[in-house]
Design goal:
single chain; mainly alpha; 8 helices; rod-shaped
Amino acid sequence: MPKRGAKPAKYKGELARPGAPVSPTTSKAEELFMPVPDDAKERALKEYVAKIVAYELGGLALLIKHYEIEELDPVMRFFELALALARDHVPYFQAERDRPGPKADAARIAVLALWTARLRHEGCGSDVEACQRLIDKGLYAKGMSAETLVRRLRDARKDPLVAAMLGVGRMTDPSTAAELRAE
């Protein structure tokens, strides 16, 4: 049973609308004024069970179609359906979100600083141009602007660790090592 407040799965068409048959049971008050023979109750219950079975089998067929399960073996088809539903509704079957914490963000920003420093050294005219090249190569999200990356880069350069990394990079580069010694 889904947790209270959990978002329902997004189904379309018949799967999005409730429509299960209603139980034929009557209240005690109705039975006092309109007694129903036991054979009529039994017949109504059998009809109800048949409607429920047909309705639920139809619903399973709609779910199999919804999840695009094409397995021919009926046992495997329902196994695949059970897994598909579990992946949608049970946290145990869902992958952990790839949402890095603050340390991963700091590392990613440090890598951005190193990449832009390298690209600038190789001839990119500006931070914006270097950041745009990183986006074009697919190293950062296509929807992100170079200006956004430059803002992150400026913040990163204020970090003492990033500044130290950039300084070490300049010292180990043969073309700048001589300049640094001369300073």
